[in-house]
Amino acid sequence: MRYLGLDLGAKSLGVAISDATHTIASTLTTLHFADSDYQKALDLLKPIIKENNVSKLVLGLPKNMNGTVGSRAEIALEFKKLLEKEFKLEVIMQDERLTTKQAEGYMLTADMSRKKRKQKIDSLAANIILQTYLDKERNENNANG
After folding, report:
1. pTM given for the model
2. Strand locations in the chain, DSSP E?
């Protein structure tokens, strides 16, 4: 059983996947759909969930820097409801403030071209969202174990 990390945009969904031990996140793909066509995003996500035996979804929650919930976060919360209804899986909301900036920083350090950065940014942001959750879950389990 694996977890998927998801970074929702207006026209794309970055997807990352955990290993079977829930230790390491890896980028998987970026799904593209028409502006705000979230049903299409679900349709594209369905085979990925099925093929990878996914047991949990970790969706980025783009809070404002002051911690408030803005319009993008509201959309993410609505998408969470769609995911739960469609897939009957637990959906965890993970604070994703600065993940896109962090992802850009990694790619600039790797001297990646602008074109490649544009192609990879969403899946790398999903990877950071998922890895942050995996680390937090492991730390909580270690503290309680």
Report:
1. 0.88
2. 2-8, 12-18, 25-32, 54-61, 90-95
